[in-house]
Amino acid sequence: MLSIKESAIDFLITNKNKIINEWNEQTLYSPENPLYDKTSLHFGQFIEFLIQTLMHKGAHTEKMIKQLAHTVAAERLQAETPIVDFINHVSSGRSILIHHLLLQNMSTVENQSIIKLMNSCMDQFLYDSISYYSELKSEMVNGQCNTLSQTHKERLTLLGKMTSSFVHEFRNPLTSIMGFVQLLQAETPDIKYLDIISTELQQLNSRITQFLDISKKETKETEKNIFDIGHLTQEVIEFLYPSILEVNANITTNLADNILISGSKEEFRQVLLNIILNALDVLSNENSNPLIDISTTVEISKQLTMNISNNGQKIHEDMIRDIFKPFITTKEHGTGLGLFVCKEIIEKNQGSLTCSSNDVLTTFTIRIPCV
Fold this sequence. Notes:
Helix content: 55-70%
Organism: Peribacillus loiseleuriae
Catalytic activity: ATP + protein L-histidine = ADP + protein N-phospho-L-histidine
Number of strands: 7
Strand order of the largest sheet: 2-4-5-7-6
GO molecular function: ATP binding; phosphorelay sensor kinase activity
Distance between the termini: 59 Å
Order of helices and strands: HHHHHHHHEHHEEHEEHHEE
CATH superfamily of the largest domain: Histidine kinase N-terminal domain
InterPro entries: HATPase_C_sf, HATPase_dom, His_kinase_dom, HisK_dim/P_dom, HisK_dim/P_sf, Histidine_kinase_N, Sig_transdc_His_kin-like_C
Protein name: histidine kinase
Oligomer: single chain
CATH topology of the largest domain: Globin-like
Number of domains: 2
Largest sheet: 5 strands, mixed
Shape: globular
CATH class of the largest domain: Mainly Alpha
Low-confidence stretches: 214-220
Structural class: alpha+beta
CATH architecture of the largest domain: Orthogonal Bundle
């Protein structure tokens, strides 16, 4: 019986040409485009490096991927093509890889394990590409745009770093989508999860837009809704059911009835998704009794307090002081953007987001006015 890595290698070798051809059709480059030939070549090279990485991961294959990433970044900058196009093309390649993988006769565990292996290599490729692109872009901007305001320079720098972190925002929706695809395979094709998959894809697009908006001098005002925070919390928990099941976490809720919030429902959904997914990630590290507790209370002054607690490893005090700053993370391959974005959303709606941690529980507390 083939090991998981051997299954991944066999899958990539067997489907390489089919994946490249399908990806070429989706990129829609015209022959006049300066990247027409190079892009397809580089995608094929990446798959070859991915195979080599799975066969014998080490400094040599990581160096080859990094060199390819730097080549791609330099060519993108020279051709003056938007970096978001590169992100979208890599995202398409990731989706095609996952799609073809799901067509194989593999178990759920094998599928998820192989996807994690592929994501790790693709994440590093994206990070190296966009980081190097940002370095080159910053050098060019510093040389040509000395008249830019200091504030806008800082936002350009922040944009460069944030675009390199989009991988983190890709991964969580893709993980959720994978869970529901597995359910679709096990049940009838007309089950309700198709709507959930569509909703998550919209979330992914929305997150990319939000990151790009940060680079602009004027922020875009999102449409406000009045919604029940308890109902939204239950929706998020149901949506994350596959991830919760994978960690075998016990989620308890004590949500007050009819607590209405004024703000962007989708932004608040992003906040809840991010905090709960972070908790699940922490609880996946050898916790014998993983627990998440979510509770809400409302004061007479119409102030909502929501506590989201988990019994994962304690966060040190020095980390808590900086945990909401951009690019601060406790994860080995984290980006440190999730909690930063969450805090921005909450504070934009006249609220606050704080964190406390002891040997028993780590708690994220949202305080915000309710209607």
